[in-house]
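Dock heme C; give full complex structure.
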Amino acid sequence: MRRAAGHRIGLGLIVCLLDTAPMAEPLSGEALFAVACEACHSLGPEPDHRIGPPLGGLHGRKAAGVRGFGYSPALQASGWVWTLPTTVAWLSDPDAAIPNNAMNYVNALSAEETQRLAEWLLAQP
Ligand code: HEC
């Protein structure tokens, strides 16, 4: 009995800590990338085995520009070039930006976080 109660108190503490986490320092672009993007994207130039194309050297790159990555026809036909405004638009709502794209991502970041992440990402080699 005692043990069970102790366990519950322990869990309560963890939940409290998690609850207050967002109040701390705002996450850096790098940290946002780690949380929201890294499961599907690496940086660097070469396609790897991830679900999404590598995102190194993105600034000024044509959409669907990584050779050897199997992009959707929608992204290939978009004619987009990755700059700050296009990247923010894409990340804010990919389906509205380029319908029928294959990036299965719903933006859970604030507008400010999206902007910070895009700025950081476009500065990566
Ligand atoms: C569930 C996997 C997944 C997540 C999470 C994800 N992406 Fe993607 N992303 C993709 C896929 C797949 C594509 C290719 C889409 C297509 O071909 O239509 C893509 C394409 C892109 C492109 C276009 C690249 C190019 O070469 O034209 C950018 C930019 C991008 N993602 C940025 C991001 C960022 C930044 C995040 C995090 C906020 C993110 N993505 C989260 C899977 C993902």
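Observed: Confidence is low (pLDDT under 50) at residues 9-17.
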